[in-house]
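Hi there,

I know you've been waiting on this one. I reran it after we fixed the sequence typo, so this is the corrected version. Both the input and the resulting structure follow.
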Amino acid sequence: MSTNYYFRETDDHRNGEKLLNGVNEIHIGQYAASTCLLMRNDQYYQSVEEMEAFYRANSDRLIIVDECERILTWDQLYERLLSAPPRRGHRFLKDEAGFAWSTEEFC
């Protein structure tokens, strides 16, 4: 069983401006016995450290949700997705911190 996680923009926009370039959510990654993060969000962040900074800087406008619409805190996301072992395989890129990233549409 897998679980997908997303940053979703709330309806509280500063001056009506959208944070996520016209989309309501971006796919963070997927847990399925291991973790895979999606690199296509590189316009917002390129590492887990930058991902956390992006979320914390915009936490008044973003929520973290899973595919069942459950809202999570950053700590819950870290526990459920980021603390799991990374995916293995030739199509995954590992960063300096050991996280596995995919450049494909889905993990």
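Quick highlight: The chain has two helices and seven strands.

Best,
R. S.
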